[in-house]
Amino acid sequence: MPSIRVVLVEPKNEGNIGAVARAMRNFDVEDLVLVNPCPIGDEARKRAMHAVEVLERARTLKQLDAAVKDADLVVGTSGIDTESEKRFARIAITPRDLAQRVAPMGGTVALLFGREDYGLYEKELSKCDLLVAIPASKVYPILNISHAATIVLYELFAAKATKKRPRPASGLEKEKLHEALSALLQATNYPAHKDARTKIMFRRLMGRAVPSKWEFHALMGVLQRATKRIKKLEETH
């Protein structure tokens, strides 16, 4: 099971921060990162209850990039889900599906929870390897961030695997895979207006797949071989 990092992006309510810290302690998660949070005072400590230590050890950062730069998988949470393939940037899986996918992983999984009013912005969602949405009533599907965190952390805690599984590709290896795809797109003169969407789609695909190291090397070999072959053909013409 990977190490879990909870990242709260610009939380506006200190009570919610304390409640998230409490949920983290319930499910053995200690790494809390706050990106441009509101002031934290007595209300946060009261809501944290026996998890004040988690709250006090939380790191405060100004940029989201710094909070996820060393993560092997970045998971965004969203109250909006879609089944439309054309809106793949918003296609999400359930917390239970997430738990099953990350159970065989090592490394660090960063869980991003957005603002109480606007959630995560599109630019922030584009940094995510995977999106998670909690099934809820269509009448009122948006959960408080502390409730959402509790549900996601519970599923991850309950799915701790004991069975030995293939070693998953690391975050660095997956970034190399994305670079290889980018090089291939460039070599094939891929349409510029489709470039960004295709890269995000591939990132989400890899996030859902959780490829093993063997799968990483196999796919990397295919992409690099194709790129080299195309460049060689161009040089001979």
Which series of helices and strands comes N to C? EHEHHEHEHEHEHHHH
Please give the alpha-carbon distance between the first and last residues: 51 Å
Strand-pairing-aware structural class: alpha/beta
Average per-residue pLDDT, rounded, comes to 91
How much helix, percentage-wise, in residues?
A: 40-55%
Runs in which pLDDT lies below 50 for 5 or more consecutive residues are none
In short:
The chain is of the alpha/beta class and 237 residues long. It has helices spanning 14-26, 42-48, 52-57, 64-68, 95-102, 122-125, 145-158, 171-187, 192-209, 213-235; strands at 3-9, 31-35, 59-61, 73-77, 108-113, 130-132. The protein has two domains: 3-158, SPOUT methyltransferase, trefoil knot domain (Alpha/beta knot), CATH 3.40.1280; 171-235.
Structural descriptors:
10 helices, Alpha/beta knot, alpha/beta, elongated, 237 residues
Description:
With 237 residues, the chain is of the alpha/beta class. It has two domains: 3-158, Alpha/beta knot (3-Layer(aba) Sandwich), CATH 3.40.1280; 171-235. It has ten helices and six strands. The protein has a six-stranded parallel beta sheet. It is elongated, with a radius of gyration of 19 Å. The mean pLDDT is 91.
Describe how the helices and strands are arranged:
Elements: E1 3-9, H1 14-26, E2 31-35, H2 42-48, H3 52-57, E3 59-61, H4 64-68, E4 73-77, H5 95-102, E5 108-113, H6 122-125, E6 130-132, H7 145-158, H8 171-187, H9 192-209, H10 213-235
Helix pairs in contact: 1-2, 1-7, 5-7, 8-9, 8-10
